[in-house]
Design brief:
Pfam families: Ala_racemase_C (PF00842), Ala_racemase_N (PF01168). This protein is an alpha/beta fold and 355 residues long. It is built from 12 helices and 18 strands. Strands 8-7-6-5-4-3-2-9 form an 8-stranded parallel beta sheet. It has a 6-stranded antiparallel β-barrel with strand order 10-13-16-15-14-17. Strands 11-12 form a two-stranded antiparallel ribbon. The protein binds pyridoxal-5'-phosphate.
Length: 355
């Protein structure tokens, strides 16, 4: 049987959740479990996130999956509902909506009594410069004050475009706008911190923080790894050695024959490829971890196989190779791939076995 395997370390997830609690001790934690818990498998992750106050998801289907699994914590739909008929499902399942445009406000008001009777909060989204979702400053103050007057309990919500960047000018603008609206609508609950902001701006933790990537033990920052941030990788992605070859100087490896050996070397062929969600294009040299050592991937990644350099390692067939995990951080694989850990974690295919 093919051995490509995804292991989920629930203790690591609990550890990372505790890191959030240390960094934001007074805020409630809305654990972001959208996109199948960032590719980790929502069922396993929920079981390890017992200490969270709430969950955040991107759509109704994701919220309903959590309810079907039996979890009763509040769930926020971070893009709100996409049509009015979803609003009744929201109320029936005790879900909470972001509102970010006027039609959503109309749909909410059409279900006002039931929404309020269930004590569900309305998360009102400020567009402070990211220009994806939300009301601009002047408008949101009116919107929130009207909703409050109608009896809704509101949370002012915002998302940073550059929380991972040092000294980006938009950060100050977004903070200032958020604080201005918060004051103009006082008293009001507030939420603006994702993982990067939780690390950087403890003064902005307010009532609810919304950690995503840090829960899964990967870094939100390009220049810091999970180890630097005292986070533990939750996913370990492995595959097995299925063939061993010795090649001589001048011989090439794999499709396109781009890698040419400069001296005799031992290769291990590992049964992993882009068909499993392992990236094909590596603008920088990529590595795997095997037998406690970090060793280069050589030649192109194919649909089902890669070749790695095991010269001098005495590697038996069947040896497990860590593609990412605690020894080879997904942050570093992402860096070599020219992407972010978020993407690699989310886009594994259905082929690897999950344990
Ligand atoms: C609204 C919102 N809040 C929080 C998060 C979590 O972000 P991160 O994974 O960077 O912590 C996301 C992720 O995209 C988001 O869209």
């Amino acid at each position: 049987m093919r051995q490509a395997t995804v292991y989920i370390d629930r203790e690591a997830l609990q550890y990372n959740l505790n890191r959030v609690k240390q960094l934001a001790p007074t805020a409630q934690i809305v654990s972001m479990v959208k996109a199948n818990a960032y590719g980790h498998g929502v069922k396993d992750c929920l079981a390890a996130l017992g200490g969270t106050d709430a969950f955040g998801v991107a759509c109704l289907e994701e919220a309903l999956e959590i309810r079907e699994l039996g979890y009763q914590q509040p769930i926020t739909l971070i893009e709100g509902v996409f049509s009015e008929d979803e609003m009744q499902v929201v109320i029936d399942n005790n879900l909470e909506c972001i509102v970010h445009h006027h039609q959503q406000l109309d749909w909410l008001r059409a279900h006002k009594d039931a929404y309020i009777a269930k004590n569900l909060k309305v998360w009102v989204k400020l567009n402070s410069g990211m220009n994806r979702l939300g009301f601009k400053v002047a408008e949101i103050i009116e919107v929130i004050n009207a909703l409050k007057a109608e009896g809704f309990t509101c949370v002012l919500a915002m998302h940073f475009a550059n929380a991972d960047a040092e000294n980006h000018p938009l950060n100050e603008q977004q903070k200032n706008q958020f604080l201005h609206v918060k004051e103009a609508c006082a008293p009001i609950m507030a939420s603006c911190c994702n993982s990067a902001a939780i690390f950087k701006w403890p003064e902005l933790n307010f009532d609810f923080v919304r950690p995503g990537i840090m829960l899964y033990g990967a870094s939100p920052f390009a220049d810091q790894t999970a180890n630097d941030l005292d986070l533990k990788p939750v996913m370990t992605f492995t595959a097995a050695v299925i063939a061993l070859n010795t090649i001589q100087a001048g011989e090439s490896v794999g499709y396109g024959s781009h890698f040419v050996a400069t001296e005799e070397m031992q290769l291990a062929i590992v049964s992993i490829g882009y068909g499993d969600g392992y990236p094909r294009a590596f603008p920088k040299q990529n590595y795997v971890s095997i037998q406690g050592k970090t060793t280069p991937v050589v030649g192109r990644v194919a649909m089902d196989m890669i070749a790695i350099d095991v010269t001098g390692l005495n590697t038996p067939l069947g040896t497990e190779v860590e593609l990412w995990g605690k020894n080879r951080l997904v942050d570093n694989v992402a860096e070599a791939n020219g992407t972010i850990g978020y993407e690699l974690l989310c886009r594994l295919s259905a082929r690897p076995i999950r344990k």
